[in-house]
Design goal:
The chain has 5 helices and 18 strands. With 259 residues, it is mainly beta. The longest helix is centred in the last third of the chain and has 7 residues, at 230-236. The chain has helices at residues 34-37, 65-70, 178-182, 230-236, 242-245; strands at residues 9-13, 16-20, 30-32, 53-57, 73-80, 84-85, 88-89, 96-97, 109-115, 118-123, 133-138, 143-146, 151-156, 164-170, 175-176, 188-192, 198-202, 211-214.
Length: 259
Amino acid sequence: MKFDPGFDIGVTSQPLGFKFGDSAFGPQPELRSLAALRPALRNPQVEGPDPVYAIVMDIGKPVHRPELQQRMLLFGAVTYAKGRLGDEVVRSQGHVHKVSSHSGWKAPEIYEIWDGRAFIYMQEFAADHPGRCFAVEASPGDIVIVPPGWAHTSMSADLAEHLTFGALCDREYGFHYEEVRRRHGLAWYALLDARGKIYWEPNQNYQKSELIFCTPRDYKAFGIQRGRPLYSQFETDPNRFQWVSKPALVSDLWKDYSP
């Protein structure tokens, strides 16, 4: 991978998944089939890679497992297949996080790109009017924060590469898909022309919205150091990311949030 995650994890492509060194722990990957994604696609009948991606949740170094559990934090990782989903880029379904019982908040999420190029797409609401919509273009080493309650998805920005990224989230990381599936995706589609160039098209199942393009901003206010692995930052100062499972700790930072 082009960016060091900060612990001993590797990626495999055949089969799609992950491998862990002796100094790391992690489960067998869960594979997301094309059939599972079809309800959230622009055209549910498209052809594409199958499985579309592999995901592992609850990963890291054994010495940190009790600390992560106590703080209700969870590291995960995802790797995407190369290619395209018909005329769409390879992506996840899109979802909103459920309310965590211990915090009473829909949890935020931190993405960290390890390999490939990504668009982290997010919109304020999974409703007829999506509110503000952002497409954040990110490269290896970049970090993107999705705020509480926003609908979001991760998209591959290069059909010739595997996109691989890590994520830090609440240990109660449940997903709600219903509103996204009902509208066949989120409010904007990232589509590919015949030459593989990405262009964007609104989803007609939502009211009209504007798509704002940006790159990741500086997240110093959240205690994040640019260019240093998230895991290493947690290892040095476990309290640094307590706001991920307790979003009320930084409630002022969620007001008028922009990524």
